[in-house]
Design a protein that fits this description.
single chain, mainly alpha
């Protein structure tokens, strides 16, 4: 508890201090946007376009993304909380089980950088689909894992897939709804992920208490991941011409 308190204080101070250095756009420091070759002549050219929060919420695309990230919140937070107890129940030492969690988090960081770059080349929908395919495959495999080495493989693949899905939140929304209310719309999607993260660990613990194992919970996870994968594949491609037509 003391460690969490210290980390919380450090994080609070670091975020507040560094946020003071943010700039609204490159012109505040005498620079041009990436790729721009001349000054924008009028302030009206700087106004972001896209849907408002109200308009975005009433689109099918937003509802689909809400479900996708709600499910991902269930999967991610449940795994973070329950994968170590599951491994120790199988006879794996606490130290080795903790390493599983470290690998999961570490590969998540790698995915944020690698798949964020890949999404710029192959598109956010394809990148999200790749992440969800990996997530679904690992969750169907998880009930059959008994050895430490296989847990490490699982943690690496699942962590990479989870990191991929997280890093795509902002660009997915920017492509889908524009930048007019991007912050507010992103807040709704993060809320979906957080709500899933609240429900998931509690539901997982309840299912374990009722059945005496995690097998039924893992099956539910795999089904939820498959649902998210299907929804992601059904997302229609978006482009800069006419956001309203694509949602």
């Amino acid at each position: 508890r003391t460690s969490y308190l210290i980390l919380g204080i450090i994080t609070l101070i670091a975020l507040v201090v560094t946020a003071q250095f943010f700039k609204r756009d490159p012109y505040q420091i005498g620079q041009l946007p990436d790729g721009a070759s001349k000054e924008i002549q009028s302030d009206s050219d700087l106004k972001p376009t896209g849907l408002s929060l109200r308009e975005a919420i009433h689109t099918r695309r937003m509802r689909m993304l809400f479900i996708v990230y709600f499910n991902l919140g269930i999967l991610a937070f449940s795994m973070l909380l329950h994968i170590v107890p599951h491994a120790t129940d199988l006879g794996i030492s606490a130290v080795s089980a903790a390493a599983i969690l470290s690998i999961l988090g570490g590969l998540g960081i790698v995915a944020r950088v690698g798949m964020g770059s890949a999404a710029d080349r192959i598109g956010t929908k394809r990148s999200l689909t790749i992440g969800l395919i990996l997530t679904t495959a690992t969750l169907f495999w998880l009930p059959y894992i008994k050895e430490l080495g296989m847990f490490y493989v699982f943690a690496g693949v699942f962590g990479f897939a989870w990191g991929t899905s997280i890093v795509l939140q902002s660009p997915l929304l920017a492509e889908s709804f524009g930048m007019k209310a991007h912050g507010a719309i992103l807040g709704v999607l993060i809320l979906a992920f957080t709500l899933g993260g609240t429900v998931g660990p509690l539901l997982t613990g309840y299912m374990f208490d009722m059945t005496g194992s995690y097998q039924s919970a893992f099956l539910v996870f795999a089904i939820l991941s498959m649902i998210s994968l299907i929804l992601a594949m059904l997302l229609k491609p978006t482009g800069s011409a006419g956001l309203m037509k694509t949602v």
